[in-house]
Amino acid sequence: QFKGGESDQEQCMTIHQAAIGIGQQIVKHHGRVNKVFMFDKGCTFLCLFGLPGDKREDESAHALQAAYGVHDLCQKEIRSLKTVSVGVTTGPVFCGVVGHPVRHEYTVIGRKVNLAARLMMHYPGVVSCDSETCYYSKLPAFYFNELPKKAMKGVKNPGVLYQFMANKQQITVGKAPMSVEREEGYPLLGREKEIEVYSSMLKGFLEARAAGHKNYNNVLIYEGPIGYREQPHRDPPEFAQRTRV
């Protein structure tokens, strides 16, 4: 939504800038921008994940990560915008060509499309989603905050609705705080904080085993968002020998 008072040229430049940034975020997370349209309350981008021929098990998680990336980008880099709102829903819809043979388009139609639009309008300034998106994303519960119920035109019993918080939350492992937001393609080993935790636990394990104690920790688990695959890596030289102990 625009702040108001912008000229037509300024609005066009803003939409152009937003389209480039949003397109990059959506494609990065295996989605597609379907259409862009203007109406009385601002400019709307309809983005799709899991189209026929491109289904993925973790598409709900990708959609949420993309939505948060879009929201963050528009707030920080496009100053002429008053409010940035994103609605994310998951469910079956009609996908296909609609219109006259001479003038038609590929689009999606269904209850979930309408619900996403209503979420965007009734919960401004946040990334909101329905309970199906929350469930199928398989992300930790602390990524979500339950939203208050609101009456929405044309929507009956939308279920529990959530605000997606993403990397505003922090996880603490030992004494080293680690952000839940990961850079795609960046190996886990090689990070100072993770190595610090790993070294501390490995040292404690070796000392306890050498002393003959049986009560010690020998498991360390790193948790990342769904959709971020494990990348092949080599242990740094200083860990190579110790990890084979």
Automatic annotation (TrEMBL):
One Pfam family hit: Guanylate_cyc
UniProt GO cellular component terms: cytoplasm
GO biological process, one term: intracellular signal transduction
Transmembrane annotation, as ranges: none
Mitochondrion keyword on record: no
The keyword Cell membrane appears for this protein: no
Domain Guanylate cyclase: 42-120
Record GO terms (molecular function): adenylate cyclase activity; ATP binding
Family matches, as PANTHER family: GUANYLATE CYCLASE DOMAIN-CONTAINING PROTEIN (PTHR16305:SF28), TESTICULAR SOLUBLE ADENYLYL CYCLASE (PTHR16305)
Protein name: Soluble adenylyl cyclase variant
Source species taxonomy: Eukaryota, Metazoa, Chordata, Craniata, Vertebrata
